[in-house]
Amino acid sequence: MPNAAHPLGLSTPDATRHPPDDREEVIQAWYMDDSDEDQRLPHHRNPEEYVSLDQLAELGVLSWRLQADNYETDDKLKEIREARRYSYMDIIEVCPEKLPNYEAKIKNFFEEHLHTDEEIRYCLAGSGYFDVRDCNDAWIRVWIKKGGMIVLPAGIYHRFTLDANNYIKAMRLFVGELV
Q1: How far from 83 is each of 88, 114, 119, CA to CA, in Å?
Q2: What pLDDT score was predicted for residue 30?
């Protein structure tokens, strides 16, 4: 049967099919509902409305999948750090047992804010949510898991919370020296 979408009625490849993107195994995004339930829940809209990594990139949110078990010797991480001039890094563990003043800090992380510099996070273990505002002020929840690295651009409103697993170990990267 001819394909009505092609001007000559020939069959054409499905334009919506893309090669698998391995980043999607460690970074997923969707539009959030307006519920006031526990911030650590997924908060999907009904019906669920996913956001592609390409759509996130249009907002300036960049992403990579890296080898978290080998972060100290990962050439891809080294290339990204050199190309983007990330000269300083530290590692933070966010969970009740490891983070002093946990309750106050997790509430502070979830307050909507923005920065004048990029915010770079690389998940080495566990998982968590970065919520970002789109161009229409709707919240997009970005779920980052072990091996996912994201860059939130300067000036984007965002916030962070743990997911129901209540644990993330993340590398924070910076341009210049930490003050």
Answers
A1: 14, 24, 16
A2: 98
CA distance 118 to 128: 18
Tokens of 159: 């916030």
List residues bridging with 174 in a β-sheet: 88
pLDDT (tens digit per residue) in 81-113: 999 999 999 999 999 999 999 989 999 999 999
pLDDT at residue 179, as a whole number: 60
Task: Give first-to-last CA distance, the chain, whole Å.
Answer: 66
Comparing CA positions, the residue from 7, 168, 5, 1 lying closest to residue 99 is: 168
**Beta-strand relationship, 119-133 and 139-145:** antiparallel
Structure pTM? 0.86
